[in-house]
Amino acid sequence: METWPGTPQKPVLSTVAGGTVTGRGLAGSAVAVSTAKGGLMGPEPAAHVPVMLDRVLALFAPALNPPGAVLVDATLGRGGHARALLEAHPGLALVGLDTDEEAIKESGRLLARYSGRVTLAHAVYDQIADVLARQGVTRVQGILFDLGVSSPQLDEPGRGFAYSYEAPLDMRMNRAQALTAAEVLNTYPAARLARVLREYGEERYAHRIAEAVVRARARAPLTSTSQLNEIIRDSVPAPARRSGGHPAKRTFQALRIEVNAELDVLARALPMALDALAVGGRIVVLAYHSLEDRAVKRALTARAVDTTPPGLPVPLAEARPQFKLLTRGAERPSAEEVATNPRAASARLRAAERIREAA
């Protein structure tokens, strides 16, 4: 499968057939849908448990029940949510996107039993419009975002996402891109690095950590997660290290967001996703930190309010809400789910349904 440096110019599309990923898109000018029911779902890989799965299934059910429905899984990962949705809706066609080529390969294997109903794209999720246009699809019935880093990415030491492993300072979701965490740490001026840590990690000690990084790299380039962990530990006061979880978690989050331009991509992707939904179509978004959730809240709320200018005697028809919110605020996983899947603890779910076309 092709790759590209940085943000890809053109997504690479493929269909799933017999356990392999092949280089074809969905047939014709519309999504080809097989009505044959897939087999029983195989076991999930031990490290990957779809977050808030029952709630995701319930929210999508009304939109995906009709034959011919199309779902975009914008953050496919290892296909946990996708498999459950394909199993629940035998007439559903799936378009899955992921910027991680390994995720595309693995999900192609895991979704093989649904061949003919699945198209995969090695693409960033702000390319939804391009992916759908290349398939001749103008409207879809569902779009799912499960944001952040996936469990398999965290559990693969060489990727550098987790502070619990000794690993290179990489943190790229798309390994073909140039920017890595090592480059950020070894080249950004202290002020710029501190801003990244403060804005993307909400790190209270951003300035201290940035200054310590600059001093350390003056002696030798930073290359490993253990070096970074040591710098953070020495920069954060002892009382702060004893509360609020691992002292490195905010810095690692900030670096990952910076390396992958996650918030910029999300800001571009959400309007595209909302535009692609048919009337009755639904969007479900799982966010894992406040910055993501804030962006999702703004995007959904903006389409769910009347935009008639103040002072007019009657509401304008073209200013009526295009969407209705399906969740009251952000929903959180149950205590039972968090007990069995601790990585679900920070999840925040929001959903909305298109109720009319844009004027």
Features:
Rossmann fold, globular, 2 domains, alpha/beta, DNA polymerase, domain 1, 359 residues, 14 helices, nine-stranded mixed β-sheet, disordered N terminus
Give structural notes.
It is a single chain. The chain has 359 residues and is an alpha/beta fold. 38% of the residues lie in helices and 14% in strands. The chain has a 9-stranded mixed sheet with strand order 2-1-5-4-3-6-7-9-8, with helices on both faces. Helix 7 packs across helix 11 and helix 12 runs parallel beside helix 13. The N terminus is likely disordered.
Structural class: alpha/beta
Order of helices and strands: EEHEHEHEHEHHHHHHHHEHEHE
Overall average residue pLDDT:
86
Number of strands: 9
Q: How many structural units, i.e. domains?
A: 2
Range of helix content: 25-40%
Overall form = globular
Low-confidence region ranges? 1-9, 17-47
Rg (C-alpha, Å): 21 Å
Strand order of the largest sheet: 2-1-5-4-3-6-7-9-8
Question: End-to-end span in angstroms?
Answer: 40 Å
Draw up the topology in text.
Elements (H helix, E strand, L loop, with lengths): L11 E6 L2 E3 L30 H12 L5 E4 L6 H9 L4 E6 L2 H10 L7 E5 L5 H7 L5 E7 L4 H5 L25 H7 L2 H12 L4 H14 L5 H11 L2 H4 L7 H12 L1 H15 E11 L2 H14 L19 E3 L9 H6 L7 E7 L5
Parallel strand pairs: 3-4, 3-6, 4-5, 6-7
Antiparallel strand pairs: 1-2, 1-5, 7-9, 8-9
Helix pairs in contact: 1-2, 7-8, 7-11, 8-9, 12-13
